[in-house]
C-alpha cells in the first residue's frame, strides 16, 4: 500500500473518533485533540491546548497533517547512501542496500550523527558459496572462484544473489593410464588430488615423478615416470660354481647354481630369482671345497696319509706295532660327499709267545689261538685246550692241566701181608669200581688154590683193602679199575707163621709105655708141618728151647745130651685125634721111639714144626710127665735169644710148672 493512502485512512479514522466527544458535549479540551496531537497546558496556565505532534502541522483538533520532510531529497536530509522515509509527522532514514548505519540500528535520524557506511559483505563466510572468493565493493561485493574451482552457470565476477552462477570444484576425473604403470593410490579426482603410480610388474622405475596431481585446469599433471622392463642381466658369477640359466633375464626367472666338482654347496639356497628390482635375488650359494677332514681313527692302527682330504684322497691303515691285521678294509677314501668311507681294519693285539702250559705241547697256533696238547706220558682231564689271545694282548690261557699219565691204579703194594694199597688215578669226584681178584698158589701143595674176588666202589684216591690171605702162599692180586678198564697186578707171598701147637691132654704117667693123646685142628700149614715128639729125661737143671732144641746146638748139647726125638710125624698123617705111645720101639719118620728106661722120669714135649725152604717155625707143648725122680727146668736166658717164632719154656719148681709164652 502506498504510504500516502495509508495516511489517508488513518486520517479518516481519527476524524470519526474526534467527532464523538463533541457529540457527548464533554468540555474537556484534551478529549478533542487530534489523534496526532498532544494535549498541553497553555503556557499562561489558562487551560489545555491541543498541539499537533512533532512532524505534523494542523490545528491540533480537527486535523494534524504530516509534513513530508523527505521532499528535499534523501541525500540532503539523511546523508549519502540513504533512503529517506517520511512518516506522519516525521521521517527516518535507512541505509541503502550494501550500506549499514554507523549506529548499527535499522533506522536513524541523521541529526544524531549517524551515517551510512559500506557493508563488507565478504566478512560473511561462504557468501560466495563453496570455492567462492568474495571481493567487497562500495555498497556491494562480487564473487570469483578460488583456485581449483570454476564458475558454473555464469561468468566471473558474479554476484551470488543476483546471478545464478556459482563456483564448482575442479574435477580431473579418473587419471589416465600411463604405460607400464599401475595406479597405486588415489586421494581423489578433484583439484589437488594425488594419484600414485608404480611400475608394472616386470618393469622398473628409471626416472620421473611417480605421482600425478589434479591441476586447477582439471587436468592431471604427470606422472612423468619412466618404467622400463626389468632386465636382471646375467646372473652374477659365484666362485666355484656354475649357473644353469635359460638366458631369460626377466623378472621371475630362476637360475640354479651348482657347485663345481670338488666343491659342495653350503648355505641355504642354490636358486637365484630375477627380482622386480631388476636384480638377481642375492644367491646365498656358497661353494666350499669338499674336504673330508681328518680321517677316522681306528684303534690300534696307524695311518698312512699324505694329509690330503679332497675327494679321492686315500688313507691306508696299518696295524700298530704289537698288533696284527685281522682283516677288514684297510683303506678309506674321501668320497664326493666329503666323507671318508668307513674303514674297518681290525687289529688284534699280539699276545706274544704262545703261553706255556706245563707238560704240554702246542698242536697248532696262529697268532690268536693256540691249541695245546699234553705231551706223551701226560694226559688232561677236562679244561680247555685252547688259549685265546685277548683283545688286551694278554693270553687267556687254556685251563688244561697236564697230569702225568699214570695207570688208574698205581703204587699197588701189599702191606703186612694182608692189605693191598693203591693209588687211584682218576678225575676228582669220579667213583671208580675196582674188581679185586686174588689167587694164591703153593709150590708145596699143587692142589691148593685160593681164588677169591671182591668189588670195591670208591671215590678215594688212596685205597686200602685188607684181604684174608693165607700163609706161605704166593699170591697174585689183580685189581681192575672197571671204568678205566685197567688192571694192575701185584704178587706177594705170605710168610711162614708159627704153627699152632696141638691141643694136648696133659697127663702124668707111671708107666714106661704111656699113650698120649692129642687133638688138633686142621691147619693150612699142614702140608709143611710135622710133629716131633721129644723125650726129655729129667736130670739136673734142664733147658728146652723150642725154636732150637738142644740137639741142634752143639754148645749146649752136653747139658742135655740125653734128650732125643722119639718120633717125627707129618701132620697130614695125623687125623684130628692122635694116640701116640712113647717107647713102643718103632720108628716114626726115621726116628727111633726107644723104650723108656725104668726108674727114670721123663718129660714128653711135642713140637710142631713148619718149614718152608730155609725158614722153620715151631711151637712146643708139654705133653706128659712120666714119673720117676724129681727134676728142675731152669729158665734160660737163651729164651731171649730166640729169634723167630714162639719160645716155649717149661719151668718146673718143685711140683708145679708154668708155661711161658713169649713173643720176640
Ligand atoms: C495521525 O498520524 C498517523 C501517522 O503518524 C496517521 O497514520 C494517522 O492517520 C493520523 N490520524 C488522523 C486522524 O489523521
Ligand atoms: C618412484 O618410485 C620408485 C619405486 O617404485 C622409487 O624408487 C623412486 O624414488 C620414486 N621416484 C620419485 C621421484 O619419488
Ligand atoms: C626361463 O625360465 C623362467 C622360469 O625360471 C620362465 O618363466 C621363462 O619363461 C623361461 N624363459 C625361456 C626363454 O625359456
Ligand atoms: C638345491 O638345493 C636343494 C635344497 O636346498 C636341493 O634339494 C637340491 O638338490 C639342490 N639342487 C642342486 C642341483 O644342487
Ligand atoms: C690291505 O688289504 C688288502 C686286502 O684287503 C691287502 O691285499 C693289502 O695287502 C693290505 N695292505 C696292507 C698295507 O696291509
Ligand atoms: C660317502 O661316504 C659316506 C660315509 O661313508 C656315505 O654316507 C655317503 O653315502 C658316501 N657318498 C657317496 C657319494 O658315496
Ligand atoms: C686264528 O684261527 C682262528 C680259528 O681258525 C681264527 O678265527 C682267527 O681269525 C685266526 N687268527 C689269525 C690271526 O689268523
Ligand atoms: C681239544 O679239546 C677238544 C674238546 O675239548 C677236543 O675235541 C680236541 O681233540 C682237543 N684237541 C687236542 C689237540 O687235544
Ligand atoms: C713162590 O714162588 C717162588 C718163585 O717162583 C718159588 O720159589 C717158591 O717156592 C714159591 N713159594 C710157594 C709157597 O709156592
Ligand atoms: C717171598 O718171596 C721173596 C722173593 O720172591 C723171598 O725173598 C722171600 O723169602 C719169600 N718169603 C716167603 C715167606 O716165602
Ligand atoms: C685113642 O685111644 C682112645 C682110648 O684110650 C680110643 O678111644 C681112641 O679111639 C683112640 N684114637 C685113635 C685115633 O686111635
From TrEMBL:
The chain crosses the membrane at residues 640-661. It is a single-pass type I membrane protein. CDD domains: CCP (cd00033), EGF_CA (cd00054). Residues 170-229, 230-289, 290-349 form the Sushi domain. Residues 1-24 form the signal peptide. One of its GO terms (molecular function) is calcium ion binding. GO terms for biological process: epithelial cell differentiation. Residues 26-65, 66-105, 118-155 form the EGF-like domain. Its main location: membrane. SMART domains: CCP, EGF, EGF_CA. GO terms for cellular component: membrane. It is found in: Membrane. InterPro entries: EGF, EGF-like_Ca-bd_dom, EGF-type_Asp/Asn_hydroxyl_site, EGF_Ca-bd_CS, Fn3_PTPRU, Growth_fac_rcpt_cys_sf, NOTCH1_EGF-like, R-tyr_protein_phosphatases. Disulfide bonds join 33-50. It comes from the Eukaryota. Keywords: Disulfide bond, EGF-like domain, Glycoprotein, Membrane, Repeat, Signal, Sushi, Transmembrane, Transmembrane helix. PANTHER family: SUSHI DOMAIN-CONTAINING PROTEIN 1 (PTHR24051). This is Sushi domain containing 1. It comes from Mastacembelus armatus (zig-zag eel). The lineage of its organism: Eukaryota, Metazoa, Chordata, Craniata, Vertebrata.
